[in-house]
Task: inverse folding
């Protein structure tokens, strides 16, 4: 097994090739998005069920919703019309 493969398999550690990419994709939970927007968690859940421009960008990891911080910030700018 190569040393890169071994490092990648160790819990809590990313291989050097993935570290830069991972830092640019901060994943947020529903509670973190609600805190970022200073809105109730229920508002965030409601926006995940909307269609069109009102739908906050998200994806599911199993049963859990996750949000890209960068995509949420882009979405806010788009909704604001900037």
Result:
């Amino acid at each position: 097994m190569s040393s890169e493969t071994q490092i990648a398999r160790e819990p809590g550690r990313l291989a050097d090739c993935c570290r830069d990419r991972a830092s640019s994709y901060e994943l947020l939970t529903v509670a973190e998005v609600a805190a970022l927007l200073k809105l109730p968690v229920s508002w965030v859940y409601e926006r995940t069920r909307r269609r069109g421009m009102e739908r906050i960008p998200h994806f599911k990891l199993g049963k859990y919703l996750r949000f890209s911080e960068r995509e949420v910030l882009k979405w806010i700018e788009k909704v604001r019309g900037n």
In short: The first helix runs from residue 3 to 9.
